[in-house]
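Researcher: I'd like a candidate sequence for this fold, 231 residues long. If you have to choose between options at a position, lean toward the conservative one.
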């Protein structure tokens, strides 16, 4: 008999295809704000945004910057690198990105099929995400993923980001789950997998990019449909 009754999923890059949805959102900004004159090409704009966004998210995880700063500064630094020092424009881009991004609906292959299967099997399904409250709930609703999940656990509500044990403890309290009957599904070895492991929760690494690693993981999959063979 399967010992798991609660399954916790990461959202971005595990169910919601962050890279494709982000690219679509940036493309709309590039077009609407006529950024070709500043960046020359969309690929340059996208690559520099992703660079600064990644660095700022790492700073956010380490509590070195606030959410509000991350939101606009990723655009400010991207613009500044291209020679446009314009804080007002950066804040406008940020506001529109936050509005546009959760409207994108690309999910990973077999996401709905797999979640429907798990729901019918009687599992309690939950989300644990480091994403922002006002964005993550909209993503779930717009992708029609919200009906599968009982709880949306965000780092903002928990007061801690993955991989901190605090967010996993908070998730246990909110859902009534226990580490020994729970399993975490995520794409990030540092936040999802290491965080769950340090909280004594089994893990399923969604390694759709076939990244080589030496991490100690309970299970590993390359496609969400493989969860059917585990659960």
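Model: Candidate sequence:
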């Amino acid at each position: 008999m399967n010992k798991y009754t609660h399954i916790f999923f990461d959202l971005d890059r595990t169910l919601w295809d962050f890279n494709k949805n982000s690219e679509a959102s940036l493309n709309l900004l590039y077009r609407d704000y006529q950024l070709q004159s500043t960046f020359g090409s969309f690929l340059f704009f996208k690559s520099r945004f992703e660079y600064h966004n990644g660095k700022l998210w790492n700073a956010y995880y380490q509590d070195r910057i606030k959410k509000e700063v991350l939101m606009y500064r990723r655009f400010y630094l991207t613009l500044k690198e291209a020679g446009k020092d314009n804080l007002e424009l950066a804040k406008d881009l940020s506001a529109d990105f936050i509005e546009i991004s959760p409207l994108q609906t690309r999910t990973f292959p077999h996401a709905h099929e797999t979640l429907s299967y798990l729901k019918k099997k009687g599992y309690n399904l939950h989300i644990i995400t480091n994403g922002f409250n006002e964005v993550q709930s909209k993503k779930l609703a717009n992708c029609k993923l919200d009906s599968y999940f009982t709880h949306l656990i965000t780092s903002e509500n928990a007061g801690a980001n993955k991989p901190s044990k605090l967010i996993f403890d908070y998730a246990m309290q909110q859902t009534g789950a226990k580490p020994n009957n729970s399993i975490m599904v995520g794409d990030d070895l540092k936040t999802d997998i290491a965080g769950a492991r340090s909280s004594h929760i089994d893990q399923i690494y969604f390694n759709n990019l076939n990244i080589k690693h030496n991490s100690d993981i309970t299970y590993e999959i390359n496609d969400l449909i493989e969860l059917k063979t585990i659960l």
